[in-house]
Batch of 2 targets.
Target 1
Amino acid sequence: MDGCEAVDRELDKVLTKFGGIDAHVERTTTNLIHSLSRLQEQFETDAGDFELTTTQASIVCDAVNQAREAVGRIATEHRDLHSTVSKVGKAIDRNLNPDFGTITRDGIFSGERAKILTQVVCQHLYRQGMLDIGDALCQESDQELDSQHKEPFIELHRILDALKRHDLEPALLWATENCEALAAQGSTLEFKLHRLAFLNLIKKGPKHQSESIRYARDNFCRFVKRHEKEVQVLMGSLLFVPGNVEASPYGHLFDNTLWDDIQETFTRDACARLGLSVDSPLAVCFAAGCIALPALLNICQAMQARQVSSIWNGKDELPIEIDLGKEFHYHSVFACPILRQQASESNPPMRLTCGHVISRDALHKLASGNKLKCPYCPGEQNPNDARQIVF
Ligand SMILES: [Zn+2]
């Protein structure tokens, strides 16, 4: 990330310089063209053959010299730009590693995996609302993506677009259709949508006051238990309808925060309702890769320098542990206390009869025949009694 920022700084310098030169060139050439065309017009109005007087000749000479000088200056400025641009290239070379070959395996994305990767990219595009690009990718890569991967996103984006335009109708319709499921997952979406609809009525002024009250009666009753404070605040805002409610102590209800919040709430709750993750899996992998790559590149360089790169046999585990930070913690991962390896599908955690848990490989290593002594307590048992644990 630091590398990207360093390149970004160089890029900013180039853009500033570009902007400056652009404005200057524009100004100079306009002036130049203007004065030369004036001169040309003058020549054309002086009809017939004539000879230039000395003064006229010197005016023409001056104009030509001026033009030559200006063009020379522009050329020099343009040349200076080259060095600034080439600094960006150097910053990229200095800050970013172009060779990721050492930390990947040949053919990792070939065959069936290439197909899966394309599907993941398509799903990401659909998720971002870039439906036509997703369709084009499917078509060009000769893949048929199940419509169930696409349709939920089409609907989500249609509703989100409406919310961005401050149109609550589609979202309210969706929330009403799914109200039971939303309530079961503890969603606040429906209340927040009705709150915005109510505030829209309030904003319309005193003429719509009775309509606002009716809306509140019809819709807020079932939310009072859970959102008592918020409903009280909304009812309080009614007092200021005859005046200017947006300049009242309730003015904060009308800034854009509630609209930003509703888009977030809708995306989160609708994804949960549809069984989708809020973040795109591809975006999460990419972000995790950006954090992990620098550390991996460093360790690979160190391993190569010491000629021990074969230690990392390129299987399903990394040569070092990389902490991606809390936001990447999705579920607990079991690490075997004996072999100090993370559990995997082929080496899952096993619960011994005494309650201690070790990996299956460790279990096999510790067992002798039908006997296994737990490494943590004196319990002796049959290794076949151990049960696999699924987190
Ligand atoms: Zn034990």
Target 2
Amino acid sequence: MELTGETLRVSDVLGPITTLGPGRRLGVWVQGCPLACAGCMSRHTWDPRGGRDVGVGQLAALWRQGLADGYDGLTVSGGEPLEQPRALAALLAAADRVRREAGRPDVDLLVYTGREDAELAASPQAAAALTHADAVITGRYRVGEPTRLVWRGSANQRLAPRTPLGHRRYGPHLTRLADRSELQVRVTADAVHLIGIPRPGELSALERDLAARGVTFQENSWRP
Ligand code: SF4
């Protein structure tokens, strides 16, 4: 099934990102999430009418360019990617094809979803959408369950390799703990993007530090 004519509703596309998966990666943040986890730092991605439509073919072209620039993987986050299962399937199928065409079968495809494992197991649509994902990180964000597990926001979230490449690449990280959080800052024309998973209190501390230096946000994505 090749569906590069599909469009995906996205919040952001940025690269290289370095804090959501191993190495330098293309990051695609899907727009729209009905799960409304308390403490979500990405509330701007909730409204499915927000963001913009981007063609899967266009995203595949960015991925191809990323591979030419030496990227190590693609991370799809959100928002909730499985709210758009057909477009997600098309994106991952295209990304898989591009990596093979580029002679880079070593680069991986990682998907974050707020869906729980049991919800995924009960959904043939989700299984189809994730066919080409090498690994998924599953589960709602639970603000009351902080964690030091790499690339996860709360202790309940599970990193699950799905392919031999996924096992090779993510196996060493399944229970790996990080001493500190890693946040990447990217400034674009209209926003400052904090990429990664902060620990409890870190965003408020950052706001206070910036305010002390005279920098305040007009709005931010982690407050109602
Ligand atoms: S943490 Fe993820 S799954 Fe939860 S509300 Fe935010 S975007 Fe949705």
